Every structure is written in C-alpha cells, then in structure tokens.
C-alpha cells in the first residue's frame, strides 16, 4: 500500500482524478493560483502600474517562487479553460486571470479530495490500472491554508483574508453539515469510454437521516436554456447497513448513454450538465457536473455572461456564520439570461473593503433571482448603490466577452 505521500503536479488536466495517486494518506498536495485583486492591490504602492497587474510583469515574476515558474500555474489552467479575453483594464484583466487560476485550483482540490474519500473503505486490487493494492484512504492535507504575503501560491485564503474559490468549493463544501451527507460525481475513463460515477458520502455520526426516506434524482440540463432537462434516474436510496460509515456507489453510466438520453451531441458533451439531488421531507442536497471541460464548449448563448445585479441592506437573522463579526450585511441578487457556471463575485479592490460572501463560485441553473448575503468586515461605509456599481461578476461565459 502507498502510505504517506506528498504530491504536486504542474502539467496536464488536474480535474482528471486519474492523475492522482490512490494513497492511504496524502499528507501534502497543492496547486497554485493567484491571490484576490484586493490581496494583490494591498501589496502595491497606491493602485500600482499596469505592469504590476500583468502576469508577465516584473513584480509577478519576482513573487513567483515555484521552481517551474508561471507555467506550472497557467499551463494546467489553460488545459481545461481558454484564456480570458483582454478587456483593456489592468485590474479587471487580473481579476479574470485570478478567476481562471482559482477555478482550476478549486476543481483540482475537489477532484483529489473526492477521489480519496470515495476510497475510504475500498481497496483497489492489482488490475493493470493500479499496479499494487491501493485505497483504504484515511484523508488528505493540502498545502497551504493561508498566505503571509501576496503572490501566486498554493493557499486557499490569501494575505488579505479573502477566500479563494477553492475554499468555497473544496474546503468548505466537503465539511459535512447536512443530514444527507454529500454527493460526489466524477467522469472516469478516456475518449469514447468515459463514464460518470456517482457516489454517496454518508453523514457523520448522529446527523444521519432515516435511510428509508432518502430519494435520488438525476437530471440533465444544457448551457443553452433554463428548461428542465430529461430525467436520467429517480429512485429510493437504500444505504448498505453493513458499512454505514462508508461511501456507497449509487450509479454509473456511460457519457454516450447520458448524451443520448438528454439529447446532447456526444461530441459536444461539455454543453451538457448533470444535476444529482438527494432529498427527503426535511432537506435537500445537490451536486452539478459538467460532462466536459469548459474549453470544449462549442459556443455560449449570446446573452450569457451578462448578469443583472441589485443589492439591498439585509436583516439576516444570524443563521449564517461569516469568519468575522460584520459591520454591515447586504443581500446581493443576480439575474441571469441563461445558465451560468461558477459565478464568482468580488468588489472592485480599489474600494478597500474586506468582505465575505455566504456562497461564491456557484451555478445559476434556474430562471429567476439568485440571492447571496455579503458580509462587510472593515472598510468605508457601504450603500447598496455602491455595491451595484462596483461588483465584479465573472462566470465561465463572461471570460469570452
């Protein structure tokens, strides 16, 4: 068995779980990303020069301490996504590149963590894929939690205390707070032999719901429309009571079959989205999987990537727990014209506002408003109008505009 492993990789598709070793314990792994625009701005004199905000600038090169340089961060990112279109503003351009590198890091961390967690109770015997018995994974530690200076690093919290996308999508999302546990979806295999595997990660301890009341629903959607897609599967989840704390495989199906069921062209499967839901009478959890890489999307709808933003003062009751005592709370509401993937919000860093979103890096797959609480820690007094004018909203679709 492979025991305590350190693993770093700076090339290839890091969203493919096949690149990661199946270990008993991975005590160190990491992927680089850029800090938030706010974190980077606070390391500059004033607002900096255009060269200070350039990925090829002298300052960025000076602060990049990885032995493989910027290529080790940008190469894997551009393996799965196209480079963002230059919009002429150095700070907005930097923000879009930060989005690309942080999204790549987030999905890489999520893929690695989920891969090991799925094999918590499973030993993979030699079969030509894994040369020796591997599995029975006990956990993983990523390097690193937080930065002490602004630079391209492996952290999920930057030097300004801003959460990167990986902290929202990987670290925070894997903390099980639901009585239904979690759903994990992964695309396995290569070329035409790709399959989607769906696993259930049971909740910890007393959080478990009655197993007889849990239902699984799997449906497909496309990036073209908010219309409800065809259902792939719906049924009752019956956990294996002999291994109540172990992940359980729920479903496995070839992508070609999903594409046929959903009416998607297998050659453009990236345009299709699989949505899996677990629910009972009390609660619901869901997971979303794009059937291909963003780079493989043939074309976005013409109005994709442009969202309507409104803000208002929020009277939240305190059920949300920001990582600080907020001075102000706002409710930000977004409206999209078509489905949007990995919606990322941030304030113009020149406002010098420390804040935290109740969720970020989320998907908008249904028509209608999507509201998120925004907590302000420190900074000048804010108004809803200021937030509406200064909010940057970046999505996969907006990178091409």
Automatic annotation (TrEMBL):
<dbReference type="InterPro" id="IPR050887">
    <property type="entry name" value="Beta-mannosidase_GH2"/>
</dbReference>
<dbReference type="GO" id="GO:0004567">
    <property type="term" value="F:beta-mannosidase activity"/>
</dbReference>
<dbReference type="GO" id="GO:0006516">
    <property type="term" value="P:glycoprotein catabolic process"/>
</dbReference>
<dbReference type="Pfam" id="PF17753">
    <property type="entry name" value="Ig_mannosidase"/>
</dbReference>
<keyword id="KW-0378">Hydrolase</keyword>
<protein>
    <submittedName>
        <fullName>Beta-mannosidase</fullName>
    </submittedName>
</protein>
<comment type="similarity">
    <text>Belongs to the glycosyl hydrolase 2 family.</text>
</comment>
<dbReference type="InterPro" id="IPR041625">
    <property type="entry name" value="Beta-mannosidase_Ig"/>
</dbReference>
<feature type="domain" description="Beta-mannosidase Ig-fold">
    <location>
        <begin position="327"/>
        <end position="397"/>
    </location>
</feature>
<keyword id="KW-0326">Glycosidase</keyword>
<dbReference type="InterPro" id="IPR017853">
    <property type="entry name" value="GH"/>
</dbReference>
């Amino acid at each position: 068995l492979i025991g305590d492993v350190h693993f770093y990789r700076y090339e290839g598709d890091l969203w493919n779980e096949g690149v990661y070793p199946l270990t008993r314990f991975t005590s160190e792994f990491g992927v680089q990303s850029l800090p938030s625009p706010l974190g980077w701005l606070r390391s500059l004199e004033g607002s900096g020069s255009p060269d200070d905000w350039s990925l090829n600038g002298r300052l960025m090169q000076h602060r990049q301490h990885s032995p493989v340089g910027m290529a080790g961060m940008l190469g894997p990112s551009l393996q799965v996504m196209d480079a963002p279109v230059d919009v002429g503003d150095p700070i907005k351009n930097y923000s879009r590149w930060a989005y690309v590198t942080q999204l790549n890091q987030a999905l890489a961390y999520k893929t690695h963590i989920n891969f090991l967690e799925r094999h918590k109770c499973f030993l993979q015997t030699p079969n030509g894929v894994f040369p020796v018995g591997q599995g029975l994974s006990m956990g993983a530690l990523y390097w690193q939690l937080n930065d002490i200076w602004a630079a391209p690093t492996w952290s999920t919290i930057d030097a300004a205390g801003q959460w990167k996308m990986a902290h929202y999508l990987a670290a925070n999302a894997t903390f099980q707070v639901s009585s239904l546990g979690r759903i994990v979806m992964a695309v396995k295999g290569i070329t035409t032999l790709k399959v989607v595997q769906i696993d259930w990660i049971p909740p910890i301890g007393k959080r478990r719901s009655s197993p007889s009341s849990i239902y699984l629903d799997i449906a497909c959607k496309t990036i073209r429309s908010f219309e409800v897609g065809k259902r792939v599967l719906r049924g009752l989840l019956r956990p294996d009571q002999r291994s109540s704390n172990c992940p359980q495989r729920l479903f496995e199906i070839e992508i070609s079959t999903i594409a046929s069921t959903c009416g998607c062209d297998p050659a453009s499967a990236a345009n299709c989205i699989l949505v899996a839901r677990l629910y009972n009478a009390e609660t619901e959890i869901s997971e979303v999987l794009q059937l291909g890489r963003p780079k493989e999307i043939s074309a976005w709808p013409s109005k994709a990537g442009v969202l309507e933003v409104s803000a208002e003062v929020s009277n939240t009751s305190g059920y949300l727990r920001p990582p600080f005592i907020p001075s102000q709370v706002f409710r930000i509401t977004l409206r999209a014209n078509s489905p949007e993937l990995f919606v990322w919000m941030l304030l113009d860093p020149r406002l010098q506002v420390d804040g935290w979103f109740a969720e970020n890096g989320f998907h908008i797959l249904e028509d209608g408003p999507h509201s998120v609480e925004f907590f302000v820690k420190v900074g000048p007094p804010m108004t809803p109008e200021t937030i509406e004018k200064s909010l940057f909203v970046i999505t996969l679709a907006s990178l091409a505009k």
